[in-house]
Specification:
This protein is α/β, with parallel strands linked by helices. It contains 17 helices and 21 strands. β11 (about 245-255) and β12 (about 255-265) form a beta hairpin. α3 (about 105-115) packs antiparallel against α4 (about 120-130) and α12 packs across α13. The structure holds flavin-adenine dinucleotide.
Length: about 500
Protein backbone atom coordinates (compact mmCIF):
# COMPACT_ATOMS: atom_id res chain seq x y z
CA UNK A 1 0.00 0.00 0.00
CA UNK A 2 1.38 3.43 -0.90
CA UNK A 3 0.76 6.47 1.28
CA UNK A 4 1.54 10.00 0.12
CA UNK A 5 1.95 12.52 2.93
CA UNK A 6 1.63 16.22 2.06
CA UNK A 7 3.90 18.44 4.14
CA UNK A 8 7.15 17.63 5.95
CA UNK A 9 6.50 19.51 9.18
CA UNK A 10 6.59 17.51 12.43
CA UNK A 11 3.13 16.04 11.72
CA UNK A 12 3.92 14.89 8.18
CA UNK A 13 7.28 13.39 9.14
CA UNK A 14 5.67 11.53 12.04
CA UNK A 15 2.82 10.28 9.83
CA UNK A 16 5.38 9.05 7.31
CA UNK A 17 7.40 7.19 9.92
CA UNK A 18 4.33 5.51 11.45
CA UNK A 19 3.11 4.57 7.95
CA UNK A 20 6.44 2.84 7.28
CA UNK A 21 6.12 0.95 10.56
CA UNK A 22 2.98 -0.67 9.11
CA UNK A 23 4.93 -1.92 6.10
CA UNK A 24 3.36 0.70 3.80
CA UNK A 25 5.42 2.49 1.15
CA UNK A 26 5.53 6.16 1.90
CA UNK A 27 6.50 9.38 0.15
CA UNK A 28 6.44 12.69 2.00
CA UNK A 29 6.19 15.69 -0.31
CA UNK A 30 7.18 19.16 0.83
CA UNK A 31 6.78 22.41 -1.12
CA UNK A 32 9.70 24.12 0.57
CA UNK A 33 13.39 23.37 -0.06
CA UNK A 34 13.75 21.72 3.35
CA UNK A 35 11.68 19.75 5.83
CA UNK A 36 10.52 21.27 9.12
CA UNK A 37 7.54 23.51 8.39
CA UNK A 38 7.17 25.93 11.28
CA UNK A 39 9.90 24.08 13.14
CA UNK A 40 12.40 25.86 10.93
CA UNK A 41 16.05 26.78 11.37
CA UNK A 42 18.02 28.69 8.75
CA UNK A 43 21.54 29.96 8.28
CA UNK A 44 22.57 33.55 7.57
CA UNK A 45 26.30 34.00 7.15
CA UNK A 46 28.05 32.77 10.30
CA UNK A 47 24.84 32.69 12.32
CA UNK A 48 22.02 30.18 12.65
CA UNK A 49 18.49 31.48 13.09
CA UNK A 50 15.85 29.57 14.97
CA UNK A 51 12.41 30.16 13.55
CA UNK A 52 10.44 27.58 15.47
CA UNK A 53 10.28 25.56 18.64
CA UNK A 54 11.25 27.47 21.76
CA UNK A 55 10.46 24.82 24.33
CA UNK A 56 9.90 21.16 23.66
CA UNK A 57 7.28 19.64 25.94
CA UNK A 58 7.37 16.05 27.17
CA UNK A 59 11.11 15.65 27.55
CA UNK A 60 10.87 13.13 30.39
CA UNK A 61 8.79 10.01 30.99
CA UNK A 62 5.29 10.82 32.26
CA UNK A 63 3.76 12.47 29.21
CA UNK A 64 2.67 10.67 26.04
CA UNK A 65 4.85 13.06 24.03
CA UNK A 66 7.94 11.42 25.54
CA UNK A 67 6.85 8.00 24.23
CA UNK A 68 6.27 9.47 20.78
CA UNK A 69 9.71 11.09 20.73
CA UNK A 70 11.12 7.74 21.77
CA UNK A 71 9.26 5.95 18.92
CA UNK A 72 10.65 8.43 16.44
CA UNK A 73 14.23 8.08 17.64
CA UNK A 74 14.36 11.58 19.09
CA UNK A 75 14.82 10.69 22.73
CA UNK A 76 17.10 9.80 24.27
CA UNK A 77 19.80 11.59 22.32
CA UNK A 78 18.29 14.88 21.23
CA UNK A 79 20.46 17.62 22.81
CA UNK A 80 18.31 19.51 25.32
CA UNK A 81 18.97 22.33 27.75
CA UNK A 82 16.90 22.24 30.91
CA UNK A 83 15.85 25.48 32.53
CA UNK A 84 15.54 26.32 36.21
CA UNK A 85 13.84 29.60 35.27
CA UNK A 86 11.21 29.59 32.56
CA UNK A 87 11.43 33.30 31.96
CA UNK A 88 12.57 36.54 33.57
CA UNK A 89 10.21 39.54 33.36
CA UNK A 90 11.59 43.02 33.70
CA UNK A 91 9.51 46.18 33.95
CA UNK A 92 11.69 48.96 32.54
CA UNK A 93 9.50 51.62 34.14
CA UNK A 94 10.05 50.44 37.70
CA UNK A 95 13.14 48.27 37.26
CA UNK A 96 11.30 45.49 39.08
CA UNK A 97 11.95 41.97 37.85
CA UNK A 98 10.43 38.60 38.49
CA UNK A 99 11.41 35.10 37.47
CA UNK A 100 9.19 32.12 36.83
CA UNK A 101 11.00 29.52 38.83
CA UNK A 102 10.46 25.76 38.52
CA UNK A 103 9.78 25.82 42.23
CA UNK A 104 6.14 26.91 42.48
CA UNK A 105 6.46 27.87 46.17
CA UNK A 106 9.29 30.20 45.29
CA UNK A 107 7.24 31.69 42.48
CA UNK A 108 4.29 32.23 44.83
CA UNK A 109 6.56 33.92 47.37
CA UNK A 110 8.09 36.21 44.74
CA UNK A 111 4.68 37.21 43.41
CA UNK A 112 3.33 37.83 46.92
CA UNK A 113 6.31 39.97 47.81
CA UNK A 114 5.97 41.91 44.60
CA UNK A 115 2.30 42.62 45.16
CA UNK A 116 0.74 41.77 48.54
CA UNK A 117 -2.60 43.07 47.16
CA UNK A 118 -2.66 40.19 44.67
CA UNK A 119 -1.65 37.53 47.20
CA UNK A 120 -5.04 35.82 47.30
CA UNK A 121 -5.31 35.34 43.52
CA UNK A 122 -1.69 34.31 43.25
CA UNK A 123 -2.12 31.75 46.04
CA UNK A 124 -5.19 30.31 44.31
CA UNK A 125 -3.35 30.00 41.02
CA UNK A 126 -0.26 28.35 42.45
CA UNK A 127 -2.22 26.07 44.79
CA UNK A 128 -4.41 24.96 41.88
CA UNK A 129 -1.35 24.39 39.70
CA UNK A 130 0.35 22.22 42.32
CA UNK A 131 -2.81 20.25 42.95
CA UNK A 132 -3.35 19.69 39.23
CA UNK A 133 -0.08 17.77 38.90
CA UNK A 134 1.04 16.68 35.47
CA UNK A 135 -2.00 16.96 33.19
CA UNK A 136 -1.58 15.04 29.92
CA UNK A 137 -4.79 16.50 28.49
CA UNK A 138 -4.09 15.64 24.85
CA UNK A 139 -3.00 12.05 25.49
CA UNK A 140 -4.97 9.64 23.35
CA UNK A 141 -3.85 6.15 22.48
CA UNK A 142 -6.22 6.18 19.52
CA UNK A 143 -7.94 9.01 17.66
CA UNK A 144 -11.43 9.86 18.87
CA UNK A 145 -13.02 8.55 15.67
CA UNK A 146 -12.03 4.96 16.48
CA UNK A 147 -11.99 5.00 20.26
CA UNK A 148 -13.81 2.06 21.75
CA UNK A 149 -16.00 2.26 24.84
CA UNK A 150 -13.12 0.64 26.72
CA UNK A 151 -10.74 3.38 25.50
CA UNK A 152 -13.15 6.07 26.66
CA UNK A 153 -13.54 4.48 30.07
CA UNK A 154 -9.77 4.19 30.46
CA UNK A 155 -9.38 7.82 29.39
CA UNK A 156 -11.94 8.96 31.95
CA UNK A 157 -10.32 6.83 34.65
CA UNK A 158 -6.89 8.22 33.86
CA UNK A 159 -8.15 11.78 34.14
CA UNK A 160 -10.48 11.10 37.08
CA UNK A 161 -8.62 13.40 39.48
CA UNK A 162 -8.28 16.15 36.90
CA UNK A 163 -11.70 16.22 35.22
CA UNK A 164 -12.78 19.13 37.39
CA UNK A 165 -10.27 21.34 35.59
CA UNK A 166 -12.39 21.13 32.44
CA UNK A 167 -15.31 22.97 34.05
CA UNK A 168 -16.24 25.73 36.51
CA UNK A 169 -13.79 28.53 37.16
CA UNK A 170 -10.99 26.63 35.41
CA UNK A 171 -12.52 27.19 31.98
CA UNK A 172 -12.79 30.92 32.55
CA UNK A 173 -10.43 32.86 30.32
CA UNK A 174 -7.06 33.95 31.63
CA UNK A 175 -8.28 37.53 31.05
CA UNK A 176 -10.77 37.05 33.94
CA UNK A 177 -7.89 36.35 36.32
CA UNK A 178 -5.83 39.19 34.86
CA UNK A 179 -8.74 41.59 35.47
CA UNK A 180 -8.57 40.80 39.20
CA UNK A 181 -4.81 41.36 39.44
CA UNK A 182 -3.63 44.87 40.21
CA UNK A 183 0.12 44.68 39.60
CA UNK A 184 1.09 45.45 35.97
CA UNK A 185 4.12 43.15 36.01
CA UNK A 186 2.04 40.16 37.13
CA UNK A 187 -0.65 41.00 34.58
CA UNK A 188 1.96 41.12 31.86
CA UNK A 189 3.55 37.88 33.04
CA UNK A 190 0.23 36.02 32.82
CA UNK A 191 -0.60 37.45 29.41
CA UNK A 192 2.80 36.57 28.02
CA UNK A 193 2.41 32.98 29.10
CA UNK A 194 -1.05 32.59 27.58
CA UNK A 195 -3.37 34.50 25.28
CA UNK A 196 -6.16 36.21 27.27
CA UNK A 197 -8.83 33.98 25.72
CA UNK A 198 -7.25 30.67 26.76
CA UNK A 199 -8.77 28.87 29.75
CA UNK A 200 -7.25 29.14 33.20
CA UNK A 201 -6.52 25.40 33.31
CA UNK A 202 -4.32 25.80 30.25
CA UNK A 203 -2.17 28.36 32.06
CA UNK A 204 -2.01 26.12 35.13
CA UNK A 205 -1.10 23.15 32.95
CA UNK A 206 1.71 25.13 31.36
CA UNK A 207 3.17 26.12 34.74
CA UNK A 208 2.75 22.62 36.08
CA UNK A 209 4.40 21.01 33.05
CA UNK A 210 7.37 23.31 33.49
CA UNK A 211 7.62 22.73 37.23
CA UNK A 212 7.65 18.96 36.59
CA UNK A 213 10.73 19.38 34.38
CA UNK A 214 8.84 18.56 31.19
CA UNK A 215 9.95 21.54 29.12
CA UNK A 216 13.42 22.09 27.69
CA UNK A 217 15.19 24.15 25.06
CA UNK A 218 16.45 22.40 21.94
CA UNK A 219 20.18 23.02 22.37
CA UNK A 220 20.85 22.71 18.65
CA UNK A 221 17.54 24.16 17.51
CA UNK A 222 14.55 22.79 15.63
CA UNK A 223 16.87 21.48 12.96
CA UNK A 224 18.13 18.82 15.36
CA UNK A 225 14.59 17.55 15.93
CA UNK A 226 13.58 17.70 12.28
CA UNK A 227 16.90 16.25 11.09
CA UNK A 228 16.44 13.22 13.34
CA UNK A 229 12.88 12.75 12.12
CA UNK A 230 14.04 12.85 8.50
CA UNK A 231 16.82 10.35 9.23
CA UNK A 232 14.37 8.03 10.95
CA UNK A 233 12.01 8.26 7.96
CA UNK A 234 14.71 7.64 5.36
CA UNK A 235 16.39 4.83 7.30
CA UNK A 236 13.03 3.07 7.45
CA UNK A 237 12.79 3.26 3.65
CA UNK A 238 10.62 6.36 3.28
CA UNK A 239 11.13 9.02 0.64
CA UNK A 240 11.18 12.75 1.28
CA UNK A 241 10.72 14.91 -1.80
CA UNK A 242 11.38 18.61 -1.21
CA UNK A 243 10.58 21.40 -3.70
CA UNK A 244 7.43 19.43 -4.39
CA UNK A 245 4.30 21.50 -4.08
CA UNK A 246 0.97 19.67 -4.18
CA UNK A 247 -1.47 21.57 -6.34
CA UNK A 248 -4.39 19.20 -6.10
CA UNK A 249 -5.52 16.10 -4.27
CA UNK A 250 -6.85 13.72 -6.90
CA UNK A 251 -10.13 11.98 -6.27
CA UNK A 252 -12.29 9.47 -8.09
CA UNK A 253 -15.91 8.50 -7.76
CA UNK A 254 -16.79 5.08 -6.42
CA UNK A 255 -20.10 3.41 -5.66
CA UNK A 256 -19.74 4.55 -2.03
CA UNK A 257 -18.71 8.15 -2.67
CA UNK A 258 -15.42 9.77 -3.63
CA UNK A 259 -11.99 8.63 -2.60
CA UNK A 260 -8.52 10.15 -2.77
CA UNK A 261 -6.24 8.41 -5.26
CA UNK A 262 -3.13 10.60 -5.29
CA UNK A 263 -1.83 14.11 -5.72
CA UNK A 264 -0.95 16.38 -8.62
CA UNK A 265 2.20 18.45 -8.13
CA UNK A 266 2.77 22.00 -9.31
CA UNK A 267 4.89 20.61 -12.18
CA UNK A 268 1.83 18.51 -13.22
CA UNK A 269 3.47 15.26 -12.16
CA UNK A 270 0.99 12.83 -10.60
CA UNK A 271 1.80 10.67 -7.57
CA UNK A 272 -0.68 7.86 -7.16
CA UNK A 273 -1.57 6.70 -3.67
CA UNK A 274 -3.84 4.29 -1.88
CA UNK A 275 -4.12 6.82 0.95
CA UNK A 276 -3.26 10.49 1.20
CA UNK A 277 -2.42 12.20 4.49
CA UNK A 278 -2.49 15.97 4.36
CA UNK A 279 -0.27 17.41 7.07
CA UNK A 280 -0.26 20.78 5.32
CA UNK A 281 -2.29 23.66 6.73
CA UNK A 282 -6.04 23.10 6.70
CA UNK A 283 -6.95 26.08 4.53
CA UNK A 284 -4.70 25.04 1.63
CA UNK A 285 -5.85 21.45 1.92
CA UNK A 286 -9.58 22.11 2.01
CA UNK A 287 -9.95 25.20 -0.15
CA UNK A 288 -7.10 24.86 -2.63
CA UNK A 289 -6.03 21.23 -2.99
CA UNK A 290 -9.65 20.02 -2.74
CA UNK A 291 -11.27 23.14 -4.26
CA UNK A 292 -13.64 23.53 -1.28
CA UNK A 293 -15.61 20.45 -2.38
CA UNK A 294 -15.65 18.49 0.88
CA UNK A 295 -16.47 21.20 3.37
CA UNK A 296 -19.35 20.74 5.75
CA UNK A 297 -20.93 23.59 7.69
CA UNK A 298 -18.79 22.89 10.78
CA UNK A 299 -15.60 23.34 8.76
CA UNK A 300 -16.90 26.55 7.21
CA UNK A 301 -17.81 27.84 10.67
CA UNK A 302 -14.28 27.16 11.90
CA UNK A 303 -12.77 29.30 9.16
CA UNK A 304 -15.39 32.01 9.60
CA UNK A 305 -15.57 32.26 13.38
CA UNK A 306 -12.63 30.70 15.16
CA UNK A 307 -9.73 32.93 16.08
CA UNK A 308 -6.22 32.13 14.93
CA UNK A 309 -3.18 32.23 17.19
CA UNK A 310 -1.84 35.76 16.92
CA UNK A 311 1.07 35.92 14.54
CA UNK A 312 4.49 37.02 15.71
CA UNK A 313 7.33 38.98 14.22
CA UNK A 314 10.82 37.86 15.06
CA UNK A 315 13.89 40.08 14.90
CA UNK A 316 17.09 38.01 15.02
CA UNK A 317 20.38 39.72 15.69
CA UNK A 318 23.82 38.17 15.39
CA UNK A 319 25.98 40.19 17.77
CA UNK A 320 29.67 40.29 18.62
CA UNK A 321 29.24 39.95 22.37
CA UNK A 322 28.40 37.42 25.04
CA UNK A 323 25.51 37.36 27.48
CA UNK A 324 27.08 35.47 30.35
CA UNK A 325 24.72 34.65 33.19
CA UNK A 326 21.56 35.88 31.42
CA UNK A 327 18.44 33.70 31.52
CA UNK A 328 17.82 32.51 27.94
CA UNK A 329 14.16 33.63 27.92
CA UNK A 330 13.28 37.16 29.02
CA UNK A 331 10.43 39.60 28.64
CA UNK A 332 10.99 43.35 28.68
CA UNK A 333 8.03 45.55 29.56
CA UNK A 334 9.03 48.62 27.62
CA UNK A 335 9.30 52.09 29.07
CA UNK A 336 8.97 53.47 25.55
CA UNK A 337 6.52 51.36 23.53
CA UNK A 338 6.58 51.67 19.74
CA UNK A 339 4.06 51.15 16.98
CA UNK A 340 3.89 48.60 14.21
CA UNK A 341 0.83 49.15 12.04
CA UNK A 342 -2.12 49.39 14.39
CA UNK A 343 -0.33 47.48 17.19
CA UNK A 344 1.37 49.14 20.14
CA UNK A 345 4.38 47.07 21.10
CA UNK A 346 4.59 47.17 24.88
CA UNK A 347 6.56 43.98 25.53
CA UNK A 348 9.52 42.35 23.84
CA UNK A 349 10.12 38.63 24.34
CA UNK A 350 13.83 37.94 24.18
CA UNK A 351 15.56 34.72 23.49
CA UNK A 352 19.29 34.70 24.11
CA UNK A 353 21.15 31.73 22.68
CA UNK A 354 23.94 31.93 25.25
CA UNK A 355 23.34 28.27 26.08
CA UNK A 356 24.05 27.05 22.57
CA UNK A 357 27.36 27.49 20.76
CA UNK A 358 25.67 26.09 17.66
CA UNK A 359 23.97 29.39 16.75
CA UNK A 360 26.93 31.77 16.53
CA UNK A 361 30.70 31.72 16.03
CA UNK A 362 32.93 31.85 19.13
CA UNK A 363 32.52 34.96 21.32
CA UNK A 364 29.38 35.96 19.41
CA UNK A 365 25.73 35.31 20.21
CA UNK A 366 22.37 35.12 18.51
CA UNK A 367 19.67 37.14 20.28
CA UNK A 368 16.05 37.31 19.14
CA UNK A 369 13.24 39.68 20.02
CA UNK A 370 9.67 38.80 19.15
CA UNK A 371 6.24 40.27 19.69
CA UNK A 372 2.69 39.92 18.44
CA UNK A 373 1.80 41.81 15.31
CA UNK A 374 -1.03 41.91 12.83
CA UNK A 375 -1.20 39.86 9.65
CA UNK A 376 -3.01 42.60 7.74
CA UNK A 377 -0.23 45.14 8.23
CA UNK A 378 2.50 42.91 6.83
CA UNK A 379 0.37 41.29 4.17
CA UNK A 380 -0.73 44.66 2.77
CA UNK A 381 2.87 45.87 2.61
CA UNK A 382 4.27 42.66 1.13
CA UNK A 383 1.58 42.38 -1.53
CA UNK A 384 1.27 46.07 -2.36
CA UNK A 385 4.52 47.84 -1.64
CA UNK A 386 7.54 45.58 -1.57
CA UNK A 387 10.06 48.35 -0.86
CA UNK A 388 7.76 49.64 1.90
CA UNK A 389 7.72 46.13 3.35
CA UNK A 390 11.52 45.97 3.44
CA UNK A 391 11.74 49.49 4.88
CA UNK A 392 9.25 48.60 7.62
CA UNK A 393 11.27 45.51 8.54
CA UNK A 394 14.36 47.69 8.79
CA UNK A 395 12.54 50.26 10.94
CA UNK A 396 11.25 47.57 13.32
CA UNK A 397 14.75 46.11 13.68
CA UNK A 398 16.09 49.57 14.55
CA UNK A 399 13.34 50.11 17.14
CA UNK A 400 14.24 46.78 18.74
CA UNK A 401 17.98 47.48 18.77
CA UNK A 402 17.31 50.88 20.36
CA UNK A 403 15.34 49.19 23.17
CA UNK A 404 18.10 46.62 23.70
CA UNK A 405 20.71 49.36 24.01
CA UNK A 406 19.23 50.24 27.42
CA UNK A 407 20.08 46.78 28.74
CA UNK A 408 23.15 45.97 26.69
CA UNK A 409 25.02 49.25 26.15
CA UNK A 410 26.97 49.25 22.90
CA UNK A 411 24.91 46.48 21.30
CA UNK A 412 23.93 48.61 18.31
CA UNK A 413 27.59 48.72 17.27
CA UNK A 414 28.00 44.98 17.85
CA UNK A 415 25.20 43.88 15.52
CA UNK A 416 26.67 41.92 12.61
CA UNK A 417 23.51 40.38 11.23
CA UNK A 418 19.84 41.33 11.17
CA UNK A 419 17.06 38.98 10.06
CA UNK A 420 13.40 39.93 10.37
CA UNK A 421 10.73 37.24 9.93
CA UNK A 422 7.20 38.64 9.70
CA UNK A 423 3.88 36.76 9.66
CA UNK A 424 4.09 37.10 5.88
CA UNK A 425 7.43 35.25 5.97
CA UNK A 426 5.78 32.48 7.99
CA UNK A 427 2.94 32.22 5.48
CA UNK A 428 5.28 32.35 2.49
CA UNK A 429 7.41 29.48 3.75
CA UNK A 430 4.79 27.25 5.36
CA UNK A 431 1.40 28.43 4.05
CA UNK A 432 -0.02 28.56 7.59
CA UNK A 433 -3.06 30.79 7.32
CA UNK A 434 -2.23 34.43 8.15
CA UNK A 435 1.11 33.31 9.56
CA UNK A 436 -0.58 31.70 12.59
CA UNK A 437 2.19 30.02 14.61
CA UNK A 438 0.05 27.41 16.25
CA UNK A 439 -3.14 27.31 14.15
CA UNK A 440 -6.37 27.97 16.10
CA UNK A 441 -6.30 29.85 19.38
CA UNK A 442 -6.75 27.20 22.11
CA UNK A 443 -9.96 28.48 23.70
CA UNK A 444 -12.17 25.90 25.49
CA UNK A 445 -14.51 25.52 22.50
CA UNK A 446 -11.58 24.68 20.23
CA UNK A 447 -9.92 22.28 22.63
CA UNK A 448 -13.03 20.19 23.27
CA UNK A 449 -14.36 20.27 19.74
CA UNK A 450 -12.47 17.24 18.35
CA UNK A 451 -11.83 18.51 14.83
CA UNK A 452 -12.53 15.63 12.41
CA UNK A 453 -9.53 14.19 10.60
CA UNK A 454 -11.61 12.76 7.78
CA UNK A 455 -13.84 14.65 5.38
CA UNK A 456 -17.50 14.05 4.58
CA UNK A 457 -17.90 12.30 1.23
CA UNK A 458 -14.19 11.62 0.71
CA UNK A 459 -12.55 8.34 1.74
CA UNK A 460 -8.83 7.54 1.79
CA UNK A 461 -7.82 11.05 2.87
CA UNK A 462 -6.80 11.80 6.45
CA UNK A 463 -5.78 15.14 7.94
CA UNK A 464 -2.91 15.64 10.38
CA UNK A 465 -1.07 18.56 11.93
CA UNK A 466 -1.81 21.39 14.30
CA UNK A 467 -4.91 22.52 12.40
CA UNK A 468 -6.66 19.34 13.56
CA UNK A 469 -4.77 19.05 16.87
CA UNK A 470 -4.43 22.63 18.12
CA UNK A 471 -3.00 23.81 21.42
CA UNK A 472 -0.22 21.32 21.89
CA UNK A 473 2.62 22.50 19.64
CA UNK A 474 5.03 20.00 18.17
CA UNK A 475 3.91 17.21 20.50
CA UNK A 476 0.30 17.57 19.33
CA UNK A 477 1.34 17.57 15.68
CA UNK A 478 3.42 14.44 16.10
CA UNK A 479 0.55 12.67 17.85
CA UNK A 480 -1.79 13.71 15.02
CA UNK A 481 0.61 12.03 12.56
CA UNK A 482 0.35 8.79 14.50
CA UNK A 483 -3.43 9.13 14.70
CA UNK A 484 -3.64 9.63 10.92
CA UNK A 485 -1.94 6.28 10.37
CA UNK A 486 -4.16 4.61 12.97
CA UNK A 487 -7.17 5.87 10.99
CA UNK A 488 -5.71 4.48 7.76
CA UNK A 489 -5.16 1.11 9.45
CA UNK A 490 -8.72 1.17 10.71
CA UNK A 491 -10.14 2.03 7.29
CA UNK A 492 -8.02 -0.57 5.53
CA UNK A 493 -8.72 -3.14 8.25
CA UNK A 494 -5.07 -3.77 9.04
CA UNK A 495 -3.76 -3.89 12.61
CA UNK A 496 -1.77 -0.86 13.77
CA UNK A 497 1.82 -1.56 14.85
CA UNK A 498 3.86 0.82 16.89
CA UNK A 499 7.36 1.68 15.69
CA UNK A 500 9.75 -0.97 16.96
CA UNK A 501 12.71 0.76 18.56
C1 LIG B 1 8.10 31.18 16.27
C2 LIG B 1 7.46 29.88 16.65
C3 LIG B 1 7.65 29.38 17.92
C4 LIG B 1 7.08 28.17 18.29
N1 LIG B 1 7.35 27.67 19.53
C5 LIG B 1 6.93 26.44 19.85
C6 LIG B 1 7.32 25.84 21.09
O1 LIG B 1 8.03 26.45 21.88
N2 LIG B 1 6.89 24.59 21.37
C7 LIG B 1 6.10 23.89 20.50
O2 LIG B 1 5.76 22.73 20.79
N3 LIG B 1 5.69 24.44 19.33
C8 LIG B 1 6.09 25.69 18.98
N4 LIG B 1 5.72 26.25 17.80
C9 LIG B 1 4.70 25.59 16.99
C10 LIG B 1 5.21 24.41 16.20
O3 LIG B 1 6.34 24.76 15.46
C11 LIG B 1 4.06 23.97 15.29
O4 LIG B 1 2.94 23.67 16.09
C12 LIG B 1 4.42 22.73 14.48
O5 LIG B 1 5.55 22.96 13.68
C13 LIG B 1 3.27 22.36 13.58
O6 LIG B 1 3.66 21.25 12.82
P1 LIG B 1 2.79 20.75 11.61
O7 LIG B 1 3.54 19.64 10.98
O8 LIG B 1 1.42 20.51 12.11
O9 LIG B 1 2.66 22.00 10.60
P2 LIG B 1 3.79 22.83 9.86
O10 LIG B 1 5.00 22.92 10.70
O11 LIG B 1 3.15 24.08 9.44
O12 LIG B 1 4.12 21.96 8.57
C14 LIG B 1 3.28 21.95 7.43
C15 LIG B 1 4.15 21.67 6.21
O13 LIG B 1 3.32 21.51 5.06
C16 LIG B 1 3.99 22.10 3.96
N5 LIG B 1 3.03 22.39 2.89
C17 LIG B 1 2.03 23.31 2.90
N6 LIG B 1 1.37 23.29 1.72
C18 LIG B 1 1.96 22.34 0.96
C19 LIG B 1 1.74 21.87 -0.36
N7 LIG B 1 0.77 22.38 -1.13
N8 LIG B 1 2.53 20.89 -0.85
C20 LIG B 1 3.53 20.35 -0.08
N9 LIG B 1 3.79 20.78 1.18
C21 LIG B 1 3.01 21.75 1.69
C22 LIG B 1 4.60 23.36 4.56
O14 LIG B 1 5.61 23.89 3.74
C23 LIG B 1 5.10 22.82 5.89
O15 LIG B 1 6.42 22.33 5.79
C24 LIG B 1 6.27 27.45 17.38
C25 LIG B 1 6.07 27.96 16.10
C26 LIG B 1 6.67 29.15 15.73
C27 LIG B 1 6.49 29.65 14.32
Amino acid sequence: MHVVVIGAGPAGLAAGRYALAQGFDCTVVERHTAAGGLAATWRRGDFVIEGGVRLLTGVNPGLQAYDLYHDLGLLPGLPLTELSTLCRFLDERTDRAIEISRNMDRLALELRQLSPDDAEHVEDLIRGTKRMGLLDWAKMERPLEIMTTGDRLRQTWRLRHQLRYFGGIFVQPVSALVAKISHPLIKSLLLTLCAPETPLWYLMMLLSTFSHGQKALLTEGSISLVGRMVTSLEEAGGKLETNCCVKEILTEQTAHGDRAVGVRLANEEVLEADYVVSAADAYSTLYEMLHGKYLDSAAKTRFREWKLCRPMIQVSLGVARRFTGETPLKVLMLRRPFFVGETTVENLSLRIFNYAPHFAPPRKTMIQASFETSWSHWNALAEGDRSGYEAEKERVAKEVIRRLELHYPGISRQVELVDVATPYTTWRYTRNLQGANEAWLPIPEVIVSAIPRTLPGLAHLVLAGHWVAPGNGVAGSILSGRHAVQLICHQSQTPFHNIRT
